[in-house]
Design a protein that fits this description.
Blueprint: H1 3-35, H2 45-54, H3 66-84, H4 100-120, H5 124-155, H6 160-167, H7 176-192, H8 211-214, H9 220-245, H10 260-285, H11 294-313
Helix pairs in contact: 1-3, 1-9, 1-10, 2-9, 3-4, 3-9, 4-5, 5-6, 5-7, 5-11, 7-9, 7-11, 9-10
Length: 314
């Protein structure tokens, strides 16, 4: 794959993640509605919500500093940079953000700024939401690092675009640590993206909010950017989960003329849809955990990640 083809794939993959992420939210909501015997809104409803927010006036607290005003733009730009490093259709990504440790620390950087923005206006809701978010993030990162370390150790390289071709050569028996690490990673994904049972993106109950509490003071286009960035983050995580731990269908070369691009797109969409169905089923069948029970779940992710790494070492 030459440089021009690599640039083309990086841009194409980034655009796909940015513009399909609101639809992923709509698909999950639609599946949950059917599971709960409701008709539900269209899968395009998140696009309409974003359009409405972009055209609404903003109300900003007088005590808000530059952190509150700057964070939405920073978060959205950060998800674009991270998305550029994640292989979607082909094993290629933006090299500076293609490394697994860079990926983890950029996400942590975004969480840090969001927590600062939540506390910036002095709101009680923002304060406890930021406190809970940092607690969850601190416990989650260990499990995520060990989960991503498993395929990295097997491949002998830390770049996602180099790990995927190596994992495609693995036999089913050798893939046992990968399956364990995948479970650990998905628990981390649920925590990082604020899904049930760690958080509930559909609630505004003050005793249960985490992510929603931090963004309660936002409105208008800044709220739209935060919501869009959260959708981007969810699709980035799911894409990394299905392409890194189940790398089938990810092209090693472009081969644009023989239809492999369309096939790769179709396989990626099917894998993302499967994860979306699993998330919707989980959120419709289990309740949100109490906040002091969340560390138990996240420690499970950490232990599973350690076990996966231990299997490789032993």
């Amino acid at each position: 794959m030459n440089d021009m083809q690599s640039i083309f794939f990086i841009i194409l993959q980034t655009v796909l993640i940015i513009f399909l992420s609101p639809m992923l939210i709509g698909v999950i909501r639609k599946i949950k509605a059917h599971l709960q015997n409701r008709q539900g809104a269209s899968i395009l409803q998140p696009y309409r919500d974003l359009w409405k927010l972009f055209h609404k006036d903003e109300v900003i607290a007088r005590d808000a500093s530059w952190i509150f005003r700057f964070t939405p733009y920073f978060l959205f730009a950060l998800t674009i940079v991270i998305a550029a490093g994640v292989p979607v259709l082909a094993a290629v990504g933006f090299e500076p953000t293609n490394d697994f440790l860079v990926f983890v620390y950029l996400l942590a950087f975004g969480t840090f700024f969001l927590a600062l923005a939540g506390m910036d206006t002095g709101s009680a809701f923002g304060g406890f939401g930021s406190s809970r978010e940092m607690m969850v993030a601190a416990i989650t990162e260990g499990g995520m690092v060990f989960a991503l370390l498993t395929p990295v150790l097997i491949a002998g390289t830390s770049g996602f675009s180099h790990v995927i071709p190596a994992l495609q050569e693995l036999s089913l028996l050798d893939s046992a640590p990968i399956f364990v690490a995948f479970i650990a990673f998905m628990i981390s994904v649920i925590a990082e993206t604020g899904r049930v049972p760690v958080d509930n993106p559909a609630t505004h109950l003050e005793l249960t909010m985490i992510h929603e509490a931090m963004i309660l003071e936002y409105s208008g286009k800044r709220l739209a950017l935060i919501e869009w960035a959260a959708a981007n983050k969810l699709l980035i995580f799911i894409t990394l989960a299905v392409n890194l731990f189940f790398p089938w269908g990810v092209a090693r070369e472009s081969a644009l003329l023989n239809g492999s691009l369309f096939l790769g797109l179709l396989i990626w969409l099917v894998k993302v849809l499967v994860i979306a169905i699993v998330i919707a089923v989980l959120e419709s069948s289990i309740a949100k955990l109490r906040i002091f029970r969340v560390p138990d779940l996240l420690f499970t992710s950490f232990i599973l990640g350690v076990i996966a790494v231990g299997i490789i070492i032993l």
